[in-house]
Amino acid sequence: MVSLRPYTAxxxxxIIPFIISFWNAHHxxxxxxxxxxxxxxxxxxxxxxxxxxxxxxxxxxxxxxxRGATVCWIEDVFVSEPLRRRGIASKAIRLAEGILRExxxxxxxxxxxPDNLPALKLYHRLGxxxxxxxxxxxxxxxxxxxRTEVIAGLPFRVRRF
Length: 161
Hints:
Distance between the termini: 40 Å
Number of helices: 4
Helix content: 25-40%
CATH architecture of the largest domain: 3-Layer(aba) Sandwich
CATH superfamily of the largest domain: Gcn5-related N-acetyltransferase (GNAT)
Number of strands: 9
Structural class: alpha+beta
Shape: globular
Strand order of the largest sheet: 1-2-3-4-5-7-6
CATH topology of the largest domain: Aminopeptidase
Radius of gyration: 16 Å
Number of domains: 2
């Protein structure tokens, strides 16, 4: 069973290796001191940092950032490499969406590197199909589509304003 646990200082030992692995996967070398700085930033006002728990064991992390009154960004999602392709990230994102819906958030956005096809495919499968510059977004309310753009073979809707 996958769950999200709000980060506390007691989680630092478990989450620091995840943060280091996250940045290494994005070709940005980091160390424990920088990971602690990230935790400091990711736990400030308008941010939520969660430990992704698989069963009883920490499996990764998920970082949210409210940017405005009605839209939240999933800034970072990370699942430990040996646990990938088991649906853990999908379940964690769905749990975060539930939390955000309860808070009255209208939409969720994410930045994704265009060549990160596994992430693009995951996010698209979860309903993030609105293209906004280089941001994927999932709206909880229906909207009028101006046109559909195809990127990496995946259809993305552009909102009509």
